[in-house]
Amino acid sequence: ESIGKTRVFSSLLQQTLDKTNNNNYSLLTAQIRIQQIHRTLVTMPPLAKSNKYDLLVIGGGSGGLAAARRAGSYGARVAIIESSGRLGGTCVNVGCVPKKVMFNTASVAEALHDAREYGFDLGTDEKPKFDWNFLKQKRDAYIKRLNGIYVNNLAKDNIEYIEGKASFASENKLRVEYNGQVEEIEAEKILIATGGHPHIPHNIPGAELGIDSDKFFDIEVQPKKAIVVGTGYIGVELAGIFNGLGTDTTLLSRSGEILRTFDPIIKNTLLEETKREGVRLLTHAKVHSLRRESSNNPLVVEFSSAETGEKTTEEFDLLLWAIGRDPNTHDLNLGVTKVKTNPKGYIVVDEYQKTDSDNIYALGDVSGVAQLTPVAIAAGRRFSDRHYGPPQFKNSKLDYSNIPTVIFHGTCGTVGLTEPEAKAKYGEANVRTYTSTFVNMYNAMTSHKPKTAYKIVVTGSEEKVIGVHLLGRDSAEILQGFAVALKMGATKADFDSTVAIHPTAAEELVTMR
């Protein structure tokens, strides 16, 4: 079968299965529809397929899809190659999208916990039961629908979708393995957007018995007791979700802090709130070994920490590694090109995503710069605007300053410089901060009183706002508008002259003095 026929069959079959799962089709209707699809494909001539393109994109994640579709909109002949069988990359399949579903679930659990304090009689003294597997099936079905939407969008945009494994044969040729076949295809430009994967340590006995953040979404049964290793944003979020859904959760930090790169008002306040919410946080911690006697036995973890002392042994249902990510470059055969990687394996690019090869580019997580989905999307669109768009885009590139980012659990957000970064850049005498710590009005009615903490960082006599840092309920939704303000060069006076919305937490940002 040609690549084109395979893509069409997969897309139509997926649509049929989705409609069957959603009860739009009966099993008989679905069977008839599949037979119709098969007859059509058997009798139709092979779809036109080129072996030379204007652009070949390796990787069907956020950045690759954005670049491919934008290039296609300008009339470029584009093909995108994805090896996993699922479009959408980390974000859609094992990242921000399913993680947000889990955060929403934990938020529902919090609302149920607070319901009685708002006057609701739940009718029983027992906690409402939570069915982890039920949620998993609904979440997986949602992700599957998104995968199908991406396939359909590529078809609508006349972009060839090749489900296969790509590696370089030369500077402008790729060797593609698909359906047991191998084919070489050529392009004027090749874009690497292969993303990354979670790092698993290789020097700890039994490390493979733990899971990574990708495998978090494969969990079928909620663990009663879990240990999360790593206190970057992934570790903090997943530990918070476990804890919010009732899992006895331990979080290991190799230092004495969490969220190392965030502003002190966020990381210091959230550290205390995380412990207060019930997560056991162990600092200056190290995992020494993992072992499990059989699949039915608990996982035995040997670790040390400042709180537990030397080499404590404890049983858990699972251990989750959240100790960083590595780029997906090892199978690309970059040695036949001029593309260079840094010591961590990330592809070295300039401000226009160009590598040391004249026709090879890279963007998104594989380049190691601001590993966020919206960044990859923006970089991908600018890449295609520059190469295939009208003349006004010939110098289009992404500005990596003032990129907002958020954590959903515990909820916080940051844009611009932290206070230490600002003082290092402008000098301590030229930096001023405004802060506010308070209890959100929602918690005025509850017995637990988590802190909300905001900080504005300004510089110069005009007090230009160069950083906004938020911790607390709804921070992720509040931040976007203030990121626009920073991008436009707003001053503290601009904030002060804005009429507040009352009663909201966000009004603190325009009333701080």
From TrEMBL:
Q: Name one GO biological process term.
A: cell redox homeostasis
The alphabetical list of record keywords is: Cytoplasm, Disulfide bond, FAD, Flavoprotein, NAD, NADP, Nucleotide-binding, Oxidoreductase, Redox-active center
Primary place of residence?
A: cytoplasm
Where is NAD(+) annotated to bind? Answer: 230-237, 324
Query: What does the record note about the cofactor?
Result: Binds 1 FAD per subunit.
Top enzyme category: oxidoreductase
Which part of the chain is the Pyridine nucleotide-disulphide oxidoreductase dimerisation domain?
A: 405-512
The enzyme's E.C. designation: 1.8.1.7
Top-level taxonomic group: Eukaryota
Catalyzes what? 2 glutathione + NADP(+) = glutathione disulfide + NADPH + H(+)
What Gene Ontology molecular function terms does this protein carry? flavin adenine dinucleotide binding; glutathione-disulfide reductase (NADPH) activity; NADP binding
Q: Which metal ions or organic cofactors does this protein require, according to UniProt? A: FAD
Q: Which SUPFAM superfamilies match?
A: FAD/NAD(P)-binding domain, FAD/NAD-linked reductases, dimerisation (C-terminal) domain
Q: Which InterPro entries match?
A: FAD/NAD-bd_sf (IPR036188), FAD/NAD-binding_dom (IPR023753), FAD/NAD-linked_Rdtase_dimer_sf (IPR016156), Glutathione_Rdtase_euk/bac (IPR006322), GSHR/TRXR-like (IPR046952), Pyr_nuc-diS_OxRdtase (IPR001100), Pyr_nucl-diS_OxRdtase_dimer (IPR004099), Pyr_OxRdtase_I_AS (IPR012999)
Residues engaged in binding FAD:
100, 365
Family label: Belongs to the class-I pyridine nucleotide-disulfide oxidoreductase family.
Q: What does this protein do?
A: Catalyzes the reduction of glutathione disulfide (GSSG) to reduced glutathione (GSH). Constitutes the major mechanism to maintain a high GSH:GSSG ratio in the cytosol.
Protein name, per record? Glutathione reductase
Organism of origin = Ambispora gerdemannii
